[in-house]
Prior knowledge:
Blueprint: H1 2-6, H2 10-19, H3 21-42, E1 46-57, H4 68-85, H5 88-100, H6 108-114, E2 115-119, E3 125-132, H7 135-156, E4 160-166, E5 172-175, H8 178-202, H9 210-217, H10 231-236, E6 238-241, E7 248-251
Antiparallel strand pairs: 1-3, 1-4, 1-5, 2-3, 6-7
Helix pairs in contact: 3-8, 5-6, 5-7
Amino acid sequence: xxxxxxxxxxxxxxxxxxxxxxxxxxxxxxxxxxxxxxxxxxxxxxxxxxxxxxxxxxxxxxxxxxxxxxxxxxxxxxxxxxxxxxxxxxxxxxxxxxxxxxxxxxxxxxxxxxxxxxxxxxxxxxxxxxxxxxxxxxxxxxxxxxxxxxxxxxxxxxxxxxxxxxxxxxxxxxxxxxxxxxxxxxxxxxxxxxxxxxxxxxxxxxxxxxxxxxxxxxxxxxxxxxxxxxxxxxxxxxxxxxxxxxxxxxxxxxxxxxxxxxxxxxxxxxxxxx
Length: 274
């Protein structure tokens, strides 16, 4: 078996795959369809909405110039503000506002898992993104955070403020990515089907050709028994002994088995020595 593994060349590999190309194509297409249907019908879609906020450091508001240190201080405050926004103090207030609008089922712990905040390219601007299965809830939660968080942040961090740059809009679908999942399904189907075909060939120990016989036993081939059912052998003609006769006849036409076919043969009388 090791010898078989070593001697599978690229040409032989291509032949093996081409022999089962119909099965490979079918499995690949079926896998892609399954991935598409699963992503479209079984996976719950998720949506995202983002609100943009600006951090303003008011420590230098008595001067007419904006110093580099003020900008650096504002950038450093971003991380602090993000922690405050995801705190229970802010999120409990957000949940209360949601209940006032008739939206229930949220608490501070579950809301924190739906919120992500990060600075934009190391600037004083940061975004708060809300991810949820309801597209309307995503932008409502994000906008409530934008309204609730600034006064709470100002209470904790003096000489600073947060201003809203852009309020969130209704959430856009971000998951599942149907196109990506379908392509992945096609690739997985292709890889699995090709792998199955190759492994099946590698572990198939049946003797199919003279080369297989030589490789397995390392002995010379003395002769080959033709397959009488092979269409090529049927059309090529052959010699045979006629019953009750010492002569043999040659048949030119395709073989017909049975005694009734004896009249179809063309006789060529040749002497056969014992």
